[in-house]
Structures are given as structure tokens and as C-alpha cells.
Write a structure and sequence with these properties.
Layout lengths: L2 H14 L12 H10 L5 H14 L3 H16 L5 H18 L8 H5 L6 H11 L9 H10 L7 H11 L5 H14 L32
Length: 217
């Protein structure tokens, strides 16, 4: 795919959704951090349901530590891997209190040093909470980037590095959200909804679906 097509793709995504945002509910960088940790192998809808009650009783590191691991589990047990997530969140809160003045650090290395936080989660925090032009490559973005030809890579890091290089700078801050939403609702895994895709004529995917009831074009 050439840069002319890439620019056209993001121009259309921007025109359709000028101010894309994460579907996770949060009111502070700390709430976002907790929500993103909880989102592993869980839907945003499920996370939002859990945090709606959790954040009313614990929306700071100190309050989360006071709630404790067992108390936290009571709010998140509907989510996958809730035992490990609870342990990681409590450990992360302890580090935030002890080393960061109870604030979420605006620094990749410091973020990735927190339990439960890897490169993808750090990129989400840096982008969504702090406005950095980062791209968190989850399964949706990995699929969309490879399927469309935007950035072909064998692993998330390779795709991330290519997207950072290929996406026109003016679109970098919002690209993460556009691509996730496109993969979540249109360019889905099992049967992409090409018949309603606003970039289907720019996409390199060969087996485009003509309609909901028909096979490939």
C-alpha cells in the first residue's frame, strides 16, 4: 500500500469520526490504568460494568490498597483472569504510592515496571491519558493493519513500528482509536463487513464480502 492510500484511509476515518475515544469509562489516568489492566481477555462493556461499582469505592491507589485484593476481587470476578488482575492491580497501587506520589507516571519505562502493564497497556495510557502519539497494537489493530495492507507485520511490535512510520503525523494521535473501532465493528475477525466499510475501495484485502448474505466479491 502506498502513502496516498494511507492518507485517504485516515482522512475518511477522521471524517466519519472526528473525535474518536476509547470505549472504556474513566475520569482519571489511574482509572484508565485499572480499566486497561482489567480489559485483557475481557470486553470493554464487561470492564465498564465492573468498574462502575469499583470506582465508587476505590478510584485512587490509596483507596484501592485499602479495599485490598479480596475486596477488589468482589468487584471484578465477572472478568476473565480476575485473580491475577486483582493481584497485579494491588501491587501496582503499592508502587504508585511508594514511588510516584500516587500518580500514574508519564513515562514508558515507569509504566512498564508496574505489574500487569506491558507495552500495549503503556501505549494506551500514554496516548489516551497523556496525548502521546503512540499506537497500542491489540488483536483488532493487528488484524486491520495486516488485512488492509496499512502495515504488514508478523507480530504486534513490528506492526506498531510500521504504523508509527507510515501513518501521516497529523493522524497519529487518533489512529489507535480509529483502527480499534474499525476492527471491532467493521473489519471483524471471522467475516469482515466489507459491504459497509468506508475504506473498502482502498483496502488490499482480496476476499471482500459483497453483502451480509453473499460470499466474497
Amino acid at each position: 500500500m502506498n502513502q496516498v492510500k494511507r492518507r485517504l484511509i485516515f482522512e475518511r476515518l477522521r471524517a466519519a469520526n472526528p473525535a474518536p475515544r476509547t470505549e472504556l469509562h474513566f475520569t482519571s489516568p489511574f482509572e484508565l490504568l485499572v480499566a486497561v489492566i482489567l480489559s485483557a481477555q475481557a470486553t470493554d462493556k464487561g470492564v465498564n460494568k465492573a468498574t462502575a461499582s469499583l470506582f465508587t469505592v476505590a478510584n485512587t491507589p490509596a483507596a484501592m490498597l485499602a479495599l485490598g485484593e479480596e475486596g477488589l476481587k468482589e468487584h471484578i470476578r465477572t472478568l476473565g483472569l480476575f485473580n491475577a488482575k486483582a493481584a497485579n492491580i494491588i501491587k501496582a497501587c503499592a508502587l504508585l504510592v511508594e514511588h510516584h506520589g500516587s500518580e500514574v507516571p508519564h513515562d514508558r519505562a515507569a509504566l512498564e515496571a508496574l505489574p500487569g502493564v506491558g507495552r500495549k497497556t503503556a501505549n494506551v495510557i500514554l496516548n489516551t491519558a497523556f496525548g502521546e502519539p503512540t499506537l497500542a497494537v491489540d488483536t483488532h489493530i493487528f488484524r486491520v493493519a495486516n488485512r488492509t495492507g496499512l502495515a504488514i507485520g508478523k507480530n504486534p511490535l513490528e506492526v506498531e513500528q510500521k504504523l508509527i512510520r507510515f501513518v501521516p503525523k497529523e493522524f497519529l494521535w487518533d489512529a489507535h482509536h480509529w483502527l480499534i473501532l474499525h476492527g471491532r465493528y467493521v473489519c471483524v475477525a471471522r467475516r469482515p463487513r466489507c459491504w459497509e466499510c468506508l475504506i473498502q475501495d482502498l483496502c488490499d484485502y482480496r476476499e471482500k464480502t459483497a453483502s451480509q448474505d453473499k460470499g466474497p466479491v
